[in-house]
Amino acid sequence: MKLDRLRSKKVLILAAVITLGLIVAGVVHSRTRQDNVTTQVKTGIDSESGINYNPATKEEKQQAEESKQRVVDRAEQEAKKPDGQKSSVTVHISSAQQTTDQKEIEVYAYVSGVTENGGACTARFTKDNETIEKSSGGLQDATTTLCTPIRFARSDLPAAGMWSVVMTYQSNKAEGKSSAVTFEVK
Prior knowledge:
- This protein is an alpha+beta fold.
- The N and C termini lie far apart (93 Å).
């Protein structure tokens, strides 16, 4: 009888300790979670994702307004051009290289000054007296026209060595060309 009472007291004490432990863990978790939410409310920055939920600063608002104005100005310039007159644009070669497996040549480029679909991007590769041309289409992006990447077999270039590439862009509304970029072909 005494043994049964002792066991039931031990079970009750163990149950009370476990319950107390769960309550403490819940309170700690709740306060930690609340601290994260409080930090986000105070700073405007979510501590887990790093996202800034604060209102835009004066500088950010100014940059947005300037960007909007550039879009309006560009549209007004296009509207003022006589029919048939093309805008002069700048082509930028982002990358011209042989792939790491050395099986292909690839060129990435974009056109600033026009945002449209359908223009023609033409890459002219030269080395000594050799000239090779490859073309792709233009794709409208938010603020530029992207040239679809030009990729072709390394064997299309007749010799190893230093090659130069110039990219031109031509459409009904715009035309332009890049500076030459030199890269090594093995």
